């Protein structure tokens, strides 16, 4: 019981939540972002939710903010149960921890809120949840289970058929998008510029984007430096640099995630290095395995899957125009998801960040924003992208991104982060797809079936 009280200090006094280390740290920051992944109505349902996202993206802080809100709403503090799973050894202990708390709760007809943080640390955690639901029922109970590994939460939640309570119970917390970053740090464009994404809407918003282009570009440079993580954002804006402590923390959690699933640091570094060398290029699993120290192809795929299912990197398949889907037999394109990962990985593999080609990071960021806006099942990780692809002809003509949404027109997007854009730079789009978008460095242009606009404008309009 002492451990339960230690993790739930609001049981003795609801105001104790204000002394929580995550709450205090957040409120000391200049820039505070409160994600709205859970609507208040959702928390009033009998459900088993999962909350996924990369380590250090803010899942625990979000949970503590939710607890703070529940306490302010007048909920009985004893009906709010939080437990960090880091040191729980197995499913049996998890069940016993729940029972120890539940036996002290007297108000059977009042809703209980159960937050199991980093549930994926517990092997076979889903067995405990299944046993809890089967034993005590789901009535008047809302579970929220967090984890940084999509594959562990996915497999576990799939083993709870009929016990989730609601449709689409899985949530994903991502680093801030470029627009969210701008809005948070003080640059917000009129709401008229935020309403959707297609060629007509882009054309409509271009006059406004031209006016703010220079300022927006400055924010893009900052976003490329710190990405969408609150800690790196506050560090950069507070001291004009990102402190070493922040880098060390993110590197530490990156490797802890790897080691948690029994992977090698040495092989991880080799795989990350080979991916960095290949960013923006098409490559086969076999070739990437050889570049990663001659490891087997299956080992390479295993490591890539771990990184993509922990929301660090994503990879895209070649677009099959006849089938309108990806072709898994062809080469892949790999990128790191958030710009800040390029800074982290460059330190891990001991390569100066300045040697990373900026247009590749721009291209990577464009792809990540397409995924976060148009992929429906990103909570399952980034190893099964179904709406964003690349395309390459038999003659080697390539288009960076193909956005293929069922029921909508396929949209090709080419990234040309350069000072001059010539018609030949988008001839492949016109010849093959007839219309599309070119993401430039600083050029605006509107043609009949082609829109060219700078990356900063593109990302902001995308959301």
Notes on the structure:
The chain is α/β, with parallel strands linked by helices. The protein folds into two domains: 2-172, Rossmann fold (3-Layer(aba) Sandwich); 178-462, no CATH class. It is built from 17 helices and 16 strands. β8 and β9 form a beta hairpin. It is globular, with a radius of gyration of 23 Å.
* Alpha-beta content class: alpha/beta
Number of helices: 17
Instruction: Tell me the total number of β-strands.
Output: 16
Main sheet overview: 6 strands, mixed
Q: Work out the count of structural domains.
A: 2
- Could you estimate the helical fraction of the residues in percent? 40-55%
Topology:
Blueprint: H1 2-7, H2 21-28, E1 47-52, H3 59-72, E2 80-84, H4 91-102, E3 112-117, H5 125-136, E4 141-147, H6 150-158, E5 170-172, H7 178-185, H8 199-226, H9 230-239, H10 244-260, H11 265-278, E6 282-283, H12 285-291, H13 297-309, E7 313-316, E8 318-320, E9 325-327, E10 332-336, H14 339-348, H15 358-374, E11 388-392, E12 398-403, E13 411-415, H16 427-433, E14 436-440, E15 445-446, E16 450-454, H17 455-462
Parallel strand pairs: 1-4, 1-5, 2-3, 3-4, 13-14, 14-16
Antiparallel strand pairs: 6-10, 7-10, 8-9, 11-12, 12-13, 15-16
Helix pairs in contact: 4-5, 8-9, 8-17, 11-14, 12-13, 15-17
């Amino acid at each position: 019981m002492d451990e339960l009280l230690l993790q739930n200090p609001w049981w003795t006094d609801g105001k104790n939540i204000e002394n929580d280390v995550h709450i205090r740290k957040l409120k000391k920051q200049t820039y505070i972002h409160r994600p709205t992944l859970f609507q208040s109505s959702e928390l009033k349902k009998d459900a088993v939710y999962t909350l996924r996202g990369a380590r250090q993206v803010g899942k625990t802080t979000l949970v503590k903010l939710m607890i703070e809100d529940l306490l302010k709403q007048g909920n009985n503090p004893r009906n709010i149960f939080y437990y960090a799973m880091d040191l729980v050894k197995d499913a049996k202990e998890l069940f016993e921890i729940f029972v120890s708390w539940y036996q002290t709760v007297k108000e059977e007809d009042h809703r209980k809120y159960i937050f199991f943080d980093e549930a994926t640390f517990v092997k076979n955690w889903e067995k405990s949840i299944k046993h809890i639901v089967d034993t005590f029922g789901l009535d008047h109970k809302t579970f929220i289970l967090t984890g940084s590994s999509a594959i562990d939460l996915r497999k576990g939640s799939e083993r709870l058929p009929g016990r989730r309570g609601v449709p689409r119970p899985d949530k994903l917390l991502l680093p801030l998008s470029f627009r969210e970053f701008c809005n948070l740090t003080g640059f917000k464009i009129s709401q008229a510029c935020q309403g959707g994404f297609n060629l007509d809407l882009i054309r409509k918003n271009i006059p406004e984007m031209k006016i703010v282009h220079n300022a927006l570009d400055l924010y893009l440079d900052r976003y490329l430096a710190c990405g969408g993580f609150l800690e790196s954002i506050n560090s950069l804006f507070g001291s004009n640099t990102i402190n070493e402590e922040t880098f060390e923390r993110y590197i530490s959690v990156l490797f802890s995630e790897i080691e948690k699933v029994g992977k090698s640091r040495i092989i991880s570094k080799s795989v990350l290095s080979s991916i960095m060398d290949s960013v923006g290029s098409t490559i086969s699993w076999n070739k990437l395995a050889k570049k990663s120290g001659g490891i087997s192809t299956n080992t390479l795929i295993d490591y890539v899957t771990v990184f993509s299912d922990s929301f660090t990197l994503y990879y895209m398949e070649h677009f099959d125009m006849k089938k309108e889907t990806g072709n898994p037999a062809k080469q892949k394109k790999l990128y790191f998801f958030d710009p800040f990962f390029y800074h982290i990985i460059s330190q891990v593999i001991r390569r100066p960040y300045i040697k990373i080609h900026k247009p590749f990071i721009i291209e990577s960021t464009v792809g990540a924003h397409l995924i976060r806006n148009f992929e429906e099942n990103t909570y399952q990780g980034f190893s099964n992208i179904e709406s964003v692809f690349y395309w390459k002809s038999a003659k080697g003509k390539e288009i960076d991104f193909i956005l293929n949404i069922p029921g909508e027109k396929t949209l090709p997007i080419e990234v040309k982060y350069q000072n001059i854009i010539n018609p030949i730079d988008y001839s492949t789009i016109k010849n093959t797809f007839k219309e599309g978008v070119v993401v430039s460095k600083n050029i605006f242009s509107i043609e009949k079936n082609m829109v060219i606009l700078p990356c900063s404008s593109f990302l902001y309009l995308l959301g």
